[in-house]
Specification:
It is built from 17 helices and 3 strands. α7 packs across α13, α14 packs across α17 and α15 crosses α16. The protein is 65% helix and 4% strand. The radius of gyration is 24 Å and the shape is globular. It has a 3-stranded antiparallel beta sheet. The chain starts with 5 loop residues before the first helix and ends with a helix.
């Protein structure tokens, strides 16, 4: 992808001294970068296109949706995000070459595309997005769990099982919750050297066996980190298969079990529930999903995009607020905001909460609660 005089074009866009054709040229360059990234994502197995044929026109539409917020202007008509990102280029005493600027532009566009893709996926599948978010939060906060990427996919494993030569999975996974893996903090050696007992040369465990054995030890009260450990316990006990799991496998199994448990609950109550009751439950689930999507947009627009809250902290806030409003909507007794946040930030103290978290987090909880209540009031 080439563009002559990109430095001049960037300077004109950021200063506001551009004509219509120059703006269209800059948008076209940004869109092509986004499309190339989307094509790569589809090659790795993600369903980006909006139709089953994956037509090029749809990829271009998705790309434009992803980068659209880059072109939001302030009251003076300036592109705020673009100007801020290229501030060092515009104020540099030496003129950077177009290739260097193109690399920098790629970084901005791909970062924005990743963020917006997450939003698109959440809107397509709120339940799956909620599970994935909770799994990622659990992986960040569990020192004995780690992951690696290979061929465009992410895989989850237990650092203890992957390092131990002689082990009993039940003992390792259930009694060493406070284990801290220094290896996970700085990976300077190949994966096989750090974790010699990853069975990467073996086939994947069949879904049927994994689910059947996992249900034997599964408890509905398990936190997500415990669920992941129990899944890894299952594969560790089958030496003929890999002792790690794809992130998508974990998410799909949790989704499947949640769906079956919900179905069983509905079946058990079928005599006492009318069709109107079941419709009302579906409407409540929809209200929860809408509240989650609303608060997620609010967090990113008001805090993440303005560098007030890092993206990993935003994920923790979202997972916590999701737990809170789900309990609220289902009529459960809710704990304090601090207690909910402690579930996803183990070791958080009251002082740390007051100093670092309370102001923003409780504001977001209030917004989510009000959004949910207003939606539920329309259903009553």
């Amino acid at each position: 992808m080439q563009s002559k005089n990109l430095h001049t074009l960037i300077h004109q866009i950021c200063s506001g001294n551009f004509n219509h054709s120059e703006l269209l040229e800059f948008i076209s360059i940004s869109q092509k970068i986004a499309v190339s990234y989307l094509k790569y994502q589809e090659i790795t197995g993600k369903n980006i296109s909006l139709d089953k044929y994956g037509s090029q026109s749809n990829l271009e539409d998705v790309a434009m949706d992803c980068i659209a917020t880059l072109f939001m202007r302030d009251d003076n008509g300036h592109f705020v995000q673009i100007s801020k990102y290229f501030d060092d280029v515009l104020n540099s005493s030496s003129m950077l070459d177009d290739e260097t600027i193109l690399i920098k532009l790629r970084g901005l566009v791909i970062k924005k595309t990743k963020q917006e893709l997450s939003r698109i996926f959440r809107e397509r599948d709120p339940e799956g997005a909620k599970i994935l978010r909770n799994v990622r939060v659990a992986l960040k906060n569990a020192p004995d769990l780690n992951s690696f990427r290979e061929m465009g996919h992410e895989f989850v494993f237990s650092t203890m099982l992957a390092q131990s030569v002689d082990y009993q999975p039940e003992v390792v996974l259930m009694k060493n919750q406070n284990f801290v893996s220094n290896m996970s903090l700085m990976r300077t050696e190949p994966l096989e050297v750090l974790y010699p007992n990853l069975r990467r040369h073996l086939p994947v465990i069949p879904d049927r066996i994994l689910k059947q054995q996992f249900l034997i030890i599964y408890s509905p009260r398990d936190p997500v980190s415990a669920i992941i450990r129990k899944m890894l316990m299952v594969v560790a006990n089958y030496p003929e298969y890999q002792n790690y799991l794809g992130l998508d496998v974990i998410v799909n199994l949790i989704r499947s079990i949640n769906k079956e448990m919900l179905h069983e609950r509905f079946i058990s109550d079928v005599e006492s529930e009318s069709p109107m009751d079941q419709l009302r439950l579906q409407e409540i689930d929809q209200a929860i999903s809408e509240a989650i999507i609303y608060i997620e947009k609010k967090i990113y627009q008001q805090y993440v995009y303005k560098n007030k809250v890092p993206s990993h902290k935003a994920d923790i806030y979202l997972a916590t607020i999701t737990d809170y409003i789900s309990d609220l909507a289902s009529g459960k007794n809710t704990d304090s905001n601090f207690s909910y946040l402690c579930r996803h930030l183990p070791g958080l103290t009251q002082r740390q909460y007051r100093d670092d978290e309370r102001s923003i987090f409780e504001y977001l909880v209030k917004l989510a609660k009000n959004k949910l209540i207003k939606k539920l009031q329309t259903l009553l």
